[in-house]
Design a protein that fits this description.
single chain, alpha/beta, Rossmann fold, seven-stranded parallel sheet, 8 helices, 14% strand
Length: 257
């Protein structure tokens, strides 16, 4: 299936590894031109080189910490306008209410919640003026299926779900689409980190992290490429009526007995 993404400019945050890197590969394979954004310039350059080598499409990169309030305007200065914005950066800490102090809570929200909102606040008006564009928010299942041992992330994701639905309801009036994906546990470094935090919160022993990954749908973690393929399709003209929707991509886990 031709996703009609050839020549589209795609900006992907948190793109040096995991879902972000997989998304860059997925879009590039469809002929889009990805710009990768991340904090680590060395890892980011390696990721961009990998995208170019594997797809034959040039991949640009911008090294920025999107947890800073002035980062979005610098990003726009370096990357310019885009057709598709993929908000994916974030590192919200795990732990129960009494295990996440104010400093860690605020830092996690600054990057993910406020980071997503700032970039939307910057790029949405440009897309609205152009009469076209897509904003895709990679959020997370904790917003739909909250857990007390990941309360900071659950609250962050729930707020982004509401933000996505609200903006996505208005966006079609201007020819723009806004949607979200809620991936469940995916085979990334981030999942391993959260599993260790959850084991520490539950049992005071992070070495028991594997016990927190039981009962997975299909007996496995989701692959980053599966999330990326859904992103590419939903951001493409093939899904041109999709806006204001946040898709739970969890293999049916929330409904399992």
């Amino acid at each position: 299936m031709d996703l009609q993404l050839e020549g589209k400019r795609v900006l992907i945050t948190g793109a040096s590894k995991g879902i972000g890197l997989a998304a860059a590969l997925a879009f590039a394979r469809e002929g889009a031109s990805p710009t990768l954004v991340g904090r680590d310039p060395v890892a980011l350059r390696a990721a961009a080189d990998a995208v170019s080598a594997q797809t034959g499409m040039p991949a640009a990169c911008v090294a920025l910490d999107l947890g800073h309030a002035d980062a979005p305007r610098e990003l726009l200065r370096q990357a310019g306008p885009v057709d598709i914005l993929v908000n994916n950066a974030g590192a919200v800490p795990g732990g129960a209410l009494d295990q996440v102090d104010d400093e860690r809570w605020l830092a996690g929200w600054e990057l993910k919640v406020h980071g997503y909102i700032r970039l939307a606040r910057l790029y949405y008006p440009l897309m609205r003026e152009a009469g076209a564009g897509v904003i895709a928010n990679v959020i997370g299942m904790a917003g739909s299926a909250p857990r007390a041992d990941y309360i900071c992330g659950a609250a962050a994701n729930a707020s982004l779900i509401a933000f996505t639905r609200a903006l996505g309801g208005e966006a079609p009036l201007h020819g723009v689409r806004v949607f979200g994906l809620n991936p469940s546990r995916t085979r990334t470094d981030r999942v391993l980190t959260l599993a260790r935090q959850r084991a520490q919160a539950r049992w005071g022993d992070e070495s028991r992290w594997q016990e927190t990954l039981s009962g997975l749908p299909f007996g496995r973690l989701m692959e980053p490429g599966e999330v990326a393929d859904m992103l590419a399709f939903c951001a493409s003209p093939r899904a041109g009526y999709l806006s204001g929707t946040v898709i739970d991509l969890d293999g049916g886990e929330q409904y399992a007995g």
